[in-house]
Amino acid sequence: MSIPHTRQSTERLLTPGEVASLFRVDPKTVTRWATAGRIGSIRTPGGHRRFRESEVQALLATLTTEASTADAR
Amino acid sequence: MSIPHTRQSTERLLTPGEVASLFRVDPKTVTRWATAGRIGSIRTPGGHRRFRESEVQALLATLTTEASTADAR
DNA sequence: CTTCAATGGGGTAATTGGGGGA
DNA sequence: TTTGTCCCAATTACCCCATTGA
């Protein structure tokens, strides 16, 4: 258990557009991921979303499939 | 109930720029939040704004949504 | 007193959100 | 089922320069 403290001032946040660029998708798609709960988000008081860079990187790594590292080089 | 524990010694004040960094927005945006009454602010005699760290942290926590722990593909 | 980064105010461009449909 | 696109309204970002704060 133990709920992790939300005390990370060094946590870099990304805009929807930046995340969209990383995944090569439309910003709207990123919005849907957030709505569907596939990725955590931080909303500004105005309603716009920001995403944790570490979480985005982790998601990218999770969805990344590498080819066998047989002797490729 | 009233709260006699007014620990202002622990009450740090943040500048617009610091709050902006936490939300990954422009300092001007934080100013608009204060003007719109979305966040409480303290004005210096010169007109500059300062924000209560506890209030900012609380607001940040409220607007934060964690990703679903279940991996639905 | 001098310096200089940060802030406020105003105005304008860019991004985002939400609904709906392809 | 997921994504991209069009609509419009709201929010946010960047430009100017005078003032404040340290």
Automatic annotation (TrEMBL), chains A, B:
Pfam families from the UniProt entry: HTH_17 (PF12728)
Gene3D superfamilies found in the cross-reference section: 1.10.1660.10
InterPro entries registered for this protein in UniProt: BldC-like, DNA-bd_dom_put_sf, HTH_17, SinI_DNA-bd
Residues of the Helix-turn-helix domain: 13-61
Superkingdom of origin: Bacteria
Gene Ontology molecular functions: DNA binding
Protein name as annotated: MerR family transcriptional regulator
Organism lineage: Bacteria, Bacillati, Actinomycetota, Actinomycetes, Pseudonocardiales
